[in-house]
Amino acid sequence: MSEIKAIYELIPEWIEANPKQEGVPSNDYYQRVAEAHGIAYNNAKNRVLNYLKYGKAVTSYKGKKKKFKKTSTTKSEFTPDKGYMEGKSTKRITSVAEAVAFFEIDTEIWSVEKVKCNAWDVTMKLDDGPGTQKRAETKTNYQVAVWLKPKQEGLMDIDFTSIFEKIQVKPSKVKPEPVYQTSIFDRLIYTDVHIGMETNPDGTSLYGLNWNEELLMERAKMMIDLAAKNQRSNTLYIDELGDLMDGWDGKTVRREHDLPQNMTNQEAYDAGVRFKCYIIDGLASLYSKIVCHNVCVDNHAGAFGYVVNQGFKKYIEAKYPGHVEVHNQIKFIDHYQVGDFVFLLCHGKDDKNMRTGFKPILDKDSKEKIDNYLYINELESKRLRIEFNKGDSHQYLKDWSVSQKFHYENFFPLSPASNWGQTNFKPGRSGFVFRNYLSKASVSETSYVFNDIGSC
Fold it and tell me: Are residue 366 and residue 269 in the same domain, yes or no?
């Protein structure tokens, strides 16, 4: 039995020996259980409530359980960092939920990373009694294996909604002066900000690149200045294509590997919201309408990026009511339309499934995905100008001839290269793009490229 599981087995005995006294707040009692066993508050609360309801520790799996006849458990290994179980079944295991029910996994403690089920046939000769001929009967047996990792109190256990609801913001009275409009609308596009990323741990990186909040805000100021200089419309769309944050607790959203960080979670959150609000404050006096789209399905920021963008949305929409809109994208690919212009936004990788994602050079399989998206969303009209905009690749590459239906575009990152990127690749280029959409046939572009090897 693992150390973690052993702790949880002791909780019922501890509760019986230390019952909650009348008048003691429940929250204080849950905290006492947590401290006594060295576990997270939320886990302690769940264990106490389960014990009071059922009289024992139980799994939190509430779904309808498929009945299995478990002939034997052949292997069971647990450490504080991972778990592994094998067993034989007479039924095929086809889902994580069935694996949880089969092994009676306590999902308050463990989350399932992978399930595997192998099948093999066994033929036996059966005798039905004296004078009968032996007959052959074949049965299928199943070997089930499950890989586990311990659950930890994480980002989604924090009640950010209650924080947002307490925000009190005094509406701004800024009134932009209209400009002579030669563009239908303007657009500011950036991606891969990677707030909190340590690019030069211990001063040992290959190119000595730096990335911190001071440099982040310098680049935000450059974005404002470039937009102001090239403004040709009274409407601005700002599109951020994902990986706003570098990670949570020093890991990617997939929690597959460690990331060197130069900010705590709290510092990174504050820096992210400040960065976003600073850009809007700098542009609100120029544009009468600003619409922000933020991609929140990616492989680094994930839920953390959504939380930062949601905090930004609550604050900035309250400060500029009817003036600024914020849309936080929670689909891997989504789109918005402005007249005959359609913009498909995607980071390039998601938070769970894709390993290679959309490549810098569009391949056949990825092209088919985009074509299917256009078909399903009825976006195949020849009158539309369609752009597929993505981040992730940390390269600025445009291909307008790979498809007759859409333009395929990668955008370079706002941040410099990570220590890993510097070591395995080139230092690359970072920057952002500003565009004036004059007509379907004419788009004016200004790209700002930072000199990362040296100063900004």
Answer: yes
